[in-house]
Specification:
The complex is a heterotrimer. Chain A has 21 helices and 2 strands. Chain A is mainly α. Chain A has a two-stranded antiparallel sheet. By secondary structure, chain B is mostly helical. Chains in contact: A-B, A-C. At the A-B interface, α16, α17 and α18 of A face β1, α5 and α6 of B.
Amino acid sequence: MIFHVDSASWIIAPVILPLIAGLLCFLFNRKIFIIALAAALANFLVVCFLIWQLLNFGPMRSYIGGWQPPLGITLRTDGPALLMLLMTAITGLGVTLYARGYFSHRISDPVRAFRHQRQQRYFWPLWMLLLTGLNGLFLSGDIFNLYVTLELIGISAASLAALSGKPASQRASFRYLLISLLGSLTYLLGIVFLYRTCGVLDLTLLRNLAGNESGMGAALALLSVGLLLKTALVPLHFWLPPAHANALAPVSVILSALVVKASFYLLFRFWFELFAPIVTMPALNFMGTLGAIAILWGAIQAMRQHRLKLMVAYSTVSQLGYLFVAFPLSRITEGAEVWSIVIFMALTHACAKSAMFMAAGSVYLHLGHDRIKDLGGVRASLPVTVFAYGIAGVSLMGLPPSGAFIAKWMLLSSSFASSQWWWVLVIMTGSLLAMIYVFRVMSQFFVIPEGDVLDTPEPLSPLLEWPALILALISLFLGLFAPWPLHILSQGSTGLALIFPGALP
Amino acid sequence: MNSGQLLLIAILLSSFIPGIIIFCLPEEKHRLRTRLNLCGSILKIALILVMNAGIYYGHVYEIRIPLIPGVELLLNGDPLSALFATLSSVLWLLTTIYAVGYLEGSPNRSHFFGYFSLCVTVTIGIALAGNLVTFLLFYEMLTLTTYPLVIHRGTEKSLRAGRNYLIYAFSGGAVFLVAVVWLQAVVGPVDFSAAGFSPSYLDSHGPVLTIIFVLLIIGVGVKAALVPLHGWLPQAMVAPAPVSALLHAVAVVKAGAFGIIRIVLDVYGAQNLLLLGVLPLLAAVATVTIFYGSIRALQQDDLKRRLAYSTISQVSYIALGMSMVDQPLAVIGGLIHLVHQGLMKITLFFCAGNLAETLGIHRISEMSGVARRMPLTMAAFSIGALGMIGIPPTVGFVSKWYLGLGGLAGGNWWLLLVLVVSSLLNAWYFLPILTSAWFGKQKGEWPEEMYIGRYETSLMLLVPPLVTAFIVLAAGLVANAQISPLAWVRFIVRGYGL
Amino acid sequence: MITTLLYSLTGLILFGMGFFTLIIHSHPLRKILAVNVMGTGVFLILVATAYIPLGQGEIDPVPHAMVLTGIVVSVSVTALALILACRVQETSNITLLKGTKQSEDIKETGA
């Protein structure tokens, strides 16, 4: 199953490519966009190639520099990792294009052209470094390496969040950085505990040991708390809305669609692979309950916001809850299905939320504000953006045929199969609340403003409108292509099915 | 991919592609837009007729798209879907012509006609859905595509109506989703072609299946406007007249009623429902809805609101027919009313729209003597109204006749009573309109008189109601002919072996 | 063994103290320092861990590599945090060294 270094060495490309691009972006002054776009494209192609490899040759691992564990750095591919990479690559490509349109539009405004130019100057290298961190995190097969990628993500994300330069965003990003540090340090402490008991860092080796060692509970708790802080699960979500809503639009997209997913992905892998033998039902129920609270609380907060971007940010808090509701329902589903719930939810949310933040950003550029009650008339001037917003909203609500619908279907059927009907109530209430906050904004778009229409500003660049629509469409039609992700998942089922053999009651 | 599958896809695309193109068209290209719309709808009718012929001769039209294990999208052309698809596509053509005339010169027409086309695509999708998941998919899509139409005017009032519509429809959709998942968890995937799941589940899961049935009916009952889930419908009257026609006769309410038919006949099946004993519940809800709608209709002075309550009342005849699923005649009555109610109600809405557009008449009290100003419109209106009351030879009589026969055959005398009382109520709220319109004296000026076109109003507004009124009469007269809606419904019912 | 335990406990206490300060104090500089103290605590435990597994005076090299990496990360993050804190001070009248003005009442509007 595990291939020799040559064919597996492609694994390193998704990490190296953005890293090189990021460094080049620092070095060069002009044409940075071309470098970033090339890197994003190349990253996408490499990910596609890796998926092809996975489908044909199965999971792979690569030891950097030929150093074997426990000393060397391990990178490995399997189904879930590659799907997360694909999510990052697609969304990343969209963000790269959108950011280009965004900065061009802002620089074309002579009032603060210099400042916006500087923002752009720093955006590209930081974004490339963030991409490096994300790809590294999804591919890493070594628990300490994961810490390094987490820090890399945290630093570049906090710097990106501070880019807008406004006081509110400075404060929010400072808090974001501290929270992220606190999370990483807790995570590091967890690693120390783990290393103390097991003496290895490699995930595969750890998995073999984890079952029969005592004292793993403390390590799991520390790792989880650290990651939960970064994932912003209620009640640890307080830092997220200001940080996401006050950032520049492309940055909001990246933070909301990708960064929170990274830490969640790790958390999920720990709970369902590494520590699966010691995870207990009460612990799973606890996570599920937090998730349920997150769904409802986030949605209620989103309904109450007066600004579009804050509304979208709270919607992220709510949507993250669905990922955790999958925890208690996982015991009765078989291996691949646990992953598929989470993966479908994450993929849909990544695409839909990026589309939504992009739409919100375009509306902001167009109107100069994002007060929900004054959005009238946008439908006529930005039809594509409004479409994108609507379709993304529909996907978030989990209507068919979106990927979230598939996830919700599986969540519902698992809760019926295990007679845990209360999750059904939470999930459906969450969908209805999502409907209310999505369409509260949507109906404002449809208001035909009284009096004169504001002297029609020049139309936005297609780069500001079309990436959002395409991502929204991907999220909506993901459900129709459900067999493909499922097929990829089943390739690298990573022993999950072994952990819960015949777990159906 | 065989020719049957291609045909199904072509049927869906024949309105989807024009819809997408229309979205992209600039506002002022109304000629091209109209042409696209008309070509699309005529093509759709032609394709559906081809499918109908194929179905009659036993061809199988089926597309399966597996999603996840146990969940698949299934498009399936069976006689029942042919009935609904034909009805919707014919009425869509007429409504499109009408809408072109109605919206002449108003803003945002590209959006309007775009959503209009998507809406009919989705409705045909509902007709062709071959299992509950597919039905759910299109059912939710229907809410999404009709919402922009309901709030098309962008006023405060229409936004409020739109909000309520969404809340009702999506709550119904959520309940429906839960019921579908639950049903699948209990009995596994059910295709509509199976005519009901195996009765062996009734012993082990009887109460659960009863609850699921109630949930399913609640889910579709929201769109079918069963009392007490009807609240959105009268409010949605703020939408332009073609949209009302669409909501009441072509798509939304019909989709709900069609859902009831599917659930009763195909998901549960007559046998299982009789064993579960839930049919009296459905009959009770239908009866209450019939009376409630009629009584509320009596109190309305706004013409469109009266018609809306009348819809609530009339659509429940379909549910009433389904509640006697063991009686073939009653089933025929229910099924045929799906077609007949659509024809009659769309006529009435077209006429109401004509009155509003040409003379600015919105209230019944303003209609006195209007027949002298607009004789053709009022003639069509009268035929529709008489049909609603059930006067032979209109189609309304045929529906009620079969329902009554079915009730008698099953020994349900109360059904006759329901029919008689409701017909009296119908007469009570329609006849005064007719008498005052034909025989009343005009009271002063019309509110906003406009002279559009050479005839009493623009030709595009006049022809659709005349055509539908003609069909209301003709289909009633030739009900027993070889080719008529009734003959097709008999063909459907034979297929169920009742 | 006792020495290792002592170091580990001290590390844990440092971590706890840092965490406490981070939560309680609102001053940006104190928060940054608190995070640094927490980091030091973790590194101390790591260094102490290095002694355990092999016994006989031999030292496990892996924790040392981890500590080195950790220190590098910590230094760079501290630099970034300081810059951000300076920016916060510039844009919103919060003095860094004197006084303990609230920096917590972050308004969610106004961007």
